[in-house]
């Protein structure tokens, strides 16, 4: 790099922060932020002040700013981005990168300050059952505002790009979510739950209606399978829908709650007989990428997003959104163990170049450099 060349300075906001890795966006910020630093970019991440007891200014070369928020279920994220956006606009950053379409309206602030911006807009938030009524209307409006106020819209799948073209008449750049292919780990850690390798099916995800765990559980329990259905995940608050699932009494059903130990989670992925993916709304899903990375046989809800990720059936089998379809798929899976074995052998090849974090980073870097030139 020439001595006179100014370092690119990028501010990132809209997730919980760094290195607080809890969800998909937090993971993306970690993977992307650390790689951008290696590329000589000055990276600043805005962290939720309330989530960090220690507040170091720099972590792994990334500058951390701890901004406040109005702490409530519906306002925390939005107010945190609002304060972060004002701070970033009054600073010397070259580009502001925001995640989450709910932050769409705050692009107006950066427009006023003439700061170049990009936003990763995520999935079809307005269709998720948890945002009924006003919440759904807000997310639809916010996603529309994102297309008006931000300089560059980023989607993580071709299908989401099509949705934004159809609904908002706005094109976007497709940059997939990255994945790290993993080596299989041994089955020793399964002893914690009394599980055996290939003796169980796996669901990983939040216990919310749009992930369809209820449908999968009901369909599975209709079968004569002697395997266990393991449900990994929960919700961070008391929820009647999630509680009703956890009350189902059947010896073949195991709720682990959150599994925070990465080695335990790796063992659960590596040794499942089949991985059930019921996520309905959204683009590239991190849990599905993990399943591919660990070489799982994937049984997925038939949606355009899941079709795209599994290359139209090359890397998984599909079920329609009804319990009988789940039942039939379990019976098929148990009648054809060699076919599931073939899915496991080829799963990692489904992580094509577009899901490679280094490639993902290069694409974001190109977007940020082009925006900085403006």
UniProtKB/TrEMBL annotation:
This protein's record includes keyword Transferase: yes
The entry's keywords: Transferase
GO biological process: lipopolysaccharide biosynthetic process
Pfam families referenced in this protein's UniProt entry, alphabetically: DUF1972, Glycos_transf_1
Record bears the keyword Transferase: yes
Domain DUF1972: 9-179
Domain Glycosyl transferase family: 192-348
GO molecular function: glycosyltransferase activity
PANTHER family, A to Z: GLYCOSYLTRANSFERASE WBBK-RELATED
Name of the featured protein: Glycosyltransferase involved in cell wall bisynthesis
